[in-house]
């Protein structure tokens, strides 16, 4: 069934006068156990009123002290009786985002007009989606975003203090250049080694991971099956990572942009225990994810855009609905054209693909639009875009060996790669590792100010290559999901030999009505 989801980057930002102004004389909030937590905001230069630094954390904050001694991995995820889908949204741009000020868990900023517009675009993107309940951080910027997205739904928004942003203590309220000037080595460690960053006797990232893992207990034990959670950058990163079993070393690796949408699926295991988890999509943003921007606060020098080819024509004898050895069907042609149009935000010189027909046709569609983009005048000369085919991208022959018939279960459920036999996933993993290394080598040779490589291939190939990028193993193949016609973006702030930062996974907003809906009705018992 075709989706009715809207296309965020095509929507103009709507002007709104709904911006709320809040005045706070103190900065204390109630936890669920009625204990308070304090937020430190230091005196700072700029338009914000000067706020005295809060006193040191006293004995009434024993829970935070215990978090230093607790391993997040020791906190198990509760079992689920039925499939659940959790949609995470980061708040829209705030006044302190715009100023470049360190917010942490302080509550002195509100949404800017741009932030309200972003929230409105997200509301429209999720308008036709089915949610049973909404959890929100109690901080103003997040709660206002939740109110805009939740709109006229009758259910009350549930606020949870554990969904507040990361506690950054004495850093909070500082402009970034002030943090660098005042704290020197500590600020540098926050930038380059955040998991081991210590301030005021606290390890903020480690505390956040413990708190995020505990959040999942409340979210997953709620009776609802389709859940919206509106929170913040760092805490949403921690929610994604802790759900999937990834440690603090993944902080700033799984990006969360303003009003970016991420989706996690939780399915019960037959034997009980912690559920199977799949990241269905990451950071689907109101604006284009391929336009210029930073990665985790750092300017990116190189980028890989992984484009999954569109839907191919049916094969009566085939078992792989994504098999690229057939031409694109009409839907696949539309998906390829939509992707080509979005990639006009990037000036490409080279496109690499597998030799499969569907991948080559998708790559050709991108190339034609790119070459024509600079040739709108009468006297212009079309720009040439080089096309290359990489043999290691060809994984169709590996996937054909399965005895499973995936064409009978369309649309494919999250984590569909789990359904393949072990020998097939092993072969896929090994070949994708070679393909990933080859792609990184080609990226390192790309010249020009915009070092961007576009790679077109089978969704299974791209899932496996992202696994290699994240230094995972083949056992994680079922933990990610890609749809036909989607794309994913990996940035390399330190160059192709540095660590990859995932900007988005399974981005489909550009497909508009031709995309897969983010949620489905929860009236039946089908898995998401």
From TrEMBL:
It is found in: Plastid, Chloroplast stroma. The active site is at residues 91, 165. InterPro entries: His_Pase_superF_clade-1 (IPR013078), His_PPase_superfam (IPR029033), PG/BPGM_mutase_AS (IPR001345), PGM_Phosphatase (IPR050275). This is 2-carboxy-D-arabinitol-1-phosphatase. It comes from Handroanthus impetiginosus. Substrate binds at residues 90-97, 141, 176. One of its GO terms (molecular function) is 2-carboxy-D-arabinitol-1-phosphatase activity. SMART domains: PGAM (SM00855). The keyword Chloroplast applies. PANTHER family: 2-CARBOXY-D-ARABINITOL-1-PHOSPHATASE-RELATED (PTHR48100:SF10), BROAD-SPECIFICITY PHOSPHATASE YOR283W-RELATED (PTHR48100). Keywords: Chloroplast, Hydrolase, Plastid, Transit peptide.
């Amino acid at each position: 069934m075709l989706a009715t989801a809207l296309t965020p980057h095509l929507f103009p930002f709507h002007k709104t006068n709904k911006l709320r102004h809040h005045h706070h004389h103190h900065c204390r909030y109630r936890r669920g156990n009625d204990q308070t937590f304090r937020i430190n905001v230091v005196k700072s230069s700029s338009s914000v009123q000067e706020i005295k630094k809060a006193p040191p954390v006293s004995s009434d904050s024993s829970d935070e002290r215990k978090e230093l001694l607790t391993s997040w991995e020791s906190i198990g995820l509760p079992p689920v009786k039925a499939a659940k889908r959790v949609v995470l949204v980061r708040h829209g741009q705030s006044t302190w985002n715009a100023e470049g000020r360190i917010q942490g868990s302080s509550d002195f900023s509100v949404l800017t007009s741009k932030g309200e517009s972003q929230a409105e675009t997200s509301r429209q993107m999720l308008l036709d989606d089915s949610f049973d309940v909404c959890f929100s951080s109690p901080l103003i910027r997040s709660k206002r975003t939740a109110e805009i997205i939740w709109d006229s739904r009758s259910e009350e928004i549930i606020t949870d203090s554990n969904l507040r942003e990361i506690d950054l203590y004495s850093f909070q309220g500082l402009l970034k250049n002030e943090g660098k000037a005042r704290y020197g080595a500590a600020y540098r460690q926050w930038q380059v080694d955040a998991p081991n960053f210590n301030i005021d006797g606290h390890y903020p990232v480690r505390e956040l991971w413990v708190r995020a893992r505990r959040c999942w207990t409340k979210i997953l034990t709620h009776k609802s099956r389709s859940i919206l959670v509106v929170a913040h950058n760092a805490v949403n990163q921690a929610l994604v990572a802790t759900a999937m079993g990834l440690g603090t070393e993944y902080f700033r690796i799984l990006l969360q942009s303003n009003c970016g949408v991420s989706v996690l699926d939780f399915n019960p295991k037959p034997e009980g225990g912690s559920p199977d988890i799949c990241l269905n999509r990451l950071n689907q943003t109101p604006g284009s994810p391929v336009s210029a921007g930073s990665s985790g606060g750092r300017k990116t020098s190189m980028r890989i855009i992984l484009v999954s080819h569109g839907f191919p024509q049916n094969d009566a004898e085939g078992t792989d609905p994504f098999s690229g050895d057939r031409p694109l069907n009409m839907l696949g042609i539309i998906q390829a054209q939509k992707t080509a149009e979005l990639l006009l935000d990037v000036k490409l010189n080279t496109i690499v693909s597998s030799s499969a027909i569907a991948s080559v046709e998708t790559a050709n569609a991108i190339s034609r639009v790119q070459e024509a983009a600079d040739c709108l005048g009468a006297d212009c000369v079309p720009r040439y875009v080089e096309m290359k085919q990489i043999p290691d991208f060809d994984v169709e022959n590996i996937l054909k060996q399965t005895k499973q018939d995936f064409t009978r279960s369309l649309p494919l459920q999250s984590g569909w790669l789990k359904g393949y036999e072990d020998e097939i996933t092993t072969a896929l993993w090994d070949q994708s590792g070679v393909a990933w290394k080859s792609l990184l080598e080609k990226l390192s040779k790309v010249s020009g100010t915009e070092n961007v490589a576009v790679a077109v291939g089978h969704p299974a190939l791209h899932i496996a290559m992202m696994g290699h990028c994240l230094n995972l193993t083949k056992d994680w193949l079922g933990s990610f999901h890609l749809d036909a016609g989607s794309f994913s973006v990996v940035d390399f702030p330190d160059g192709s030999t540095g660590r990859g930062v995932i900007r988005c996974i399974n981005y489909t907003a550009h497909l508009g009505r031709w995309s897969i809906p983010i949620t489905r009705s929860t009236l039946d018992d089908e898995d998401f």
